[in-house]
Structure formats: structure tokens, C-alpha cells
Amino acid sequence: MMNRYNETGTIINFSARTYMNHKCICTYASDDEKFHAIIDDYGVMYSPDGKRLLDTVRQLKHYEVPEGVEVICDGAFCFSGLESIKLPDSLLAIGCNAFGNTRLTALTIPRNVRHIAPVNPIATNQLLLDKFECLSPYFKVVKGILYSKDNVIFYGAVTEDYPEELEILEGVKAIANGAMSHRAHLRSVSIPDSVTVMGDGAFHCSGVKKVKLSQNIDRIPAECFYDCRLEVFIVPEGVVNVDDSALGHNDNLITVVFPKTLKNIVYNVFSGCPSLTRISGPRKSNFMNLKDMQKAGLRKGVRSTRENCIIDSYESNMEGVTMHLHN
User: Fold this and answer.
1) Cβ contacts of residue 327 below 8 Å, gap of 6+?
2) Is the separation of the CB atoms in 9 and 123 below 8 Å?
3) In angstroms, how far apart are the furthest CA atoms of the chain?
4) Rg of the chain's alpha carbons, rounded to an integer?
5) Residue 264 backbone dihedrals phi, psi, to 5 degrees
6) Of the candidates 36, 13, 8, which has an alpha carbon nearest to the alpha carbon of residue 24?
7) What's the whole-number average pLDDT of the chain?
8) Helix (H) or strand (E) holding 115
9) Where are the alpha helices (DSSP H) in the chain?
10) Would the CA dihedral through 269, 274, 278, 284 be positive or negative?
């Protein structure tokens, strides 16, 4: 299971030893580790043995990571203002969102890197890289998209030449957190049935209008399709949970169809969806009721029958949302 974003867009305590049968190297820097850290002249923080780059304590534009560093920890350069960086051949692991929200235009992954945490390494960058080069045999780039070499992990777009109509490669099992976040010219995505896990914010603030979801996922994660351009969203059978703000702020969203397997809707799933007019789901469900619909971002029950009920929605420009219940 993916871990949740914290307020800086990094991942909280991702310390699993394996992920999708890939061996992991710990990229989490604890408060105790930072307390005993050494800080160089540029404000970059290292473990006492110099093998782990933990964080940055001030803004910097250009930086060369010294030889001997093996791990760049979670969020190490996030929000640092970094414009260029050179990474050493000694590097083995890159943590969650290590280069997110920077000003990088180019990045080269050295040949010995064997672990990239399951988050797009430049997640939350609204401007993509002009050049991304991967020298490591453990990863590959296909049409501007970073994958693990065996196709198991889809890390997402790293350069501007990703396709508008994206077909994720067959065999992918996990879509990383923030994989296509802020990828504005993405218009459609087809997710193969080999995918069993989608990360938080995977398509957050993207331009996606049409989605074909895997039939083998059990969760629509937090903010996965937040602030997109969806019009119709069909949740496949097998999905059990729809998490916080998963579909929030889709201005064009008109119709949502839920499966019989769904058991739980978390907060604000529909908040900020002014065009939503129809929600369809099973009559004998655990969630198609006024209380859960209020929690999901709708409010004020107006009328209900055995067939349907009308609910006013938050931030709505129309009279109400028809909740159609079927067998």
C-alpha cells in the first residue's frame, strides 16, 4: 500500500524492505538522524558517515553531490529552488519526491541507482524536465515516461514528450504517487488490468478527461483524480474504497457510477463538482445514503424514494444531484 503525502508533498516513513518484489533501500531520514547530521557550506545536510544526504536547510541553485553518497533521502531537495544537480556514481537510492518542486531542467540518474521510491522523482513539478537521462539498468524511459526495467512500477512522466493519450504498458502492477500530477496535456489514460495499486495523487491536477481503469484495483486513492477534466467516471467492480478528495474539483464531472463491491466513501470525494447531476449505485449498498453522501461532499436531502433521492450539492449551480439506485 502506498503511504500518504505529508504537507511538503513527500511520503511519510516509507521504509518497506520490498515493494512489488523489488528490494528497497531506506530513504527515510528520522529526526534523530537529522539532529546528529553534518551540514556543508551550501546548507546540505548529511549523515555523519557521509553516505546519506538527508535534507537542505536553505535555498540553493546549483549543487554537486559528492562521491561516496549512497542515498538521497525523501524530499531532500524539495522546495530548495535547485536549478541543476550532478549526482555521483556511488548513488544507490533516491527517496520520495527528492527533486519535487525544484527548478531543474535536466536530470541524469547514475548507473548504480537500483532503488527509486514509488513516487515520481520530480512529482509536483508543474514544468517538466527538458532532458532526463537514465544510465541505471534498473529503470527505463519510454516516450517521456519512467518505468522500472521490468515494467512493474510506473513512475510517470519526467519530460514533456509524454503522450496525450497514454496507454500504460501491460505488466505494470503499481502506479507511483504523483505519477502524472500536473501533466496538463494528458487527455486520456488506459490502465491495464495488471495494475493492482494506484498511488495517492497519481493524476492530480492533470488534464485527463477519459479514464479506463484496471479491473483489479480495490481502491481509488486520495486525490487520485483531483482537479482533472473528467466528465464521466465509472468505478470498476472490485473497488472497495474511494478515498479523500479522489474526484474533488472536477468542474466538468456529470456522472459517477459505483459498483456493488464499494463499501466506503471518504471525505470530500465530490466537493467542488458543480456539474455533477447523477450518481448511480446499487440499491443495497453500505454507502448510498444521505449521511455518507454528505461526507462525500453533498448535503441537504430533498426527496427520497425507493428508486432515487435528490440531494443538493456543495458549490452547485444546478438544482440537485439525482442518486439513482439499481439492483
Assistant:
1) 282, 283
2) yes
3) 70
4) 21
5) -150, 135
6) 13
7) 87
8) strand 115-116
9) 31-35, 290-295
10) positive
Place of cell 468542474: 251
Residue 312 has pLDDT above 50, yes or no: no
Mean pLDDT of all residues in 40-54: 97
Q: How far apart are CA 194 and CA 64, in angstroms?
A: 39
Q: Residue 100, Cβ neighbours under 10 Å: how many?
A: 24
For 207-246, write each residue's pLDDT tens digit: 999 999 999 999 999 999 999 999 999 999 999 999 999 9
Using a cut of 0.85, tell me whether the model's pTM lies above it: yes
- State mean pLDDT over 188-201: 97
**Is residue 323 pLDDT above 90, yes or no?**
no
Burial class of residue 7 (count of CB atoms within 10 Å of its CB; 0-12, 13-18, 19+): exposed
Cβ contact 146:162 at 8 Å: no
Backbone angles phi, psi at 325, to 5 degrees: -105, 130
Q: 117: which 3 cell numbers? A: 521510491
Cα gap 177→199, rounded to integer Å: 4
The DSSP annotation for 34-82 comes to HHT-EE-TTSEEE-TTS-EEEEESS--SEEEPPTT--EEPTTTTTTS--
Q: Which residues of 134-144 are buried (b: 16+ CB within 10 A; e: fewer)?
A: bebebbebeeb
Q: Which three cell numbers stand for residue 324?
A: 439513482
For residue 300, give the C-alpha cell: 441537504
| Three-state SS sequence of 163-211 | CCEEECCCCCCEECECCCCCCCCCCEEECCCCCCEECCCCCCCCCCCEE
Cell 477534466 belongs to 229
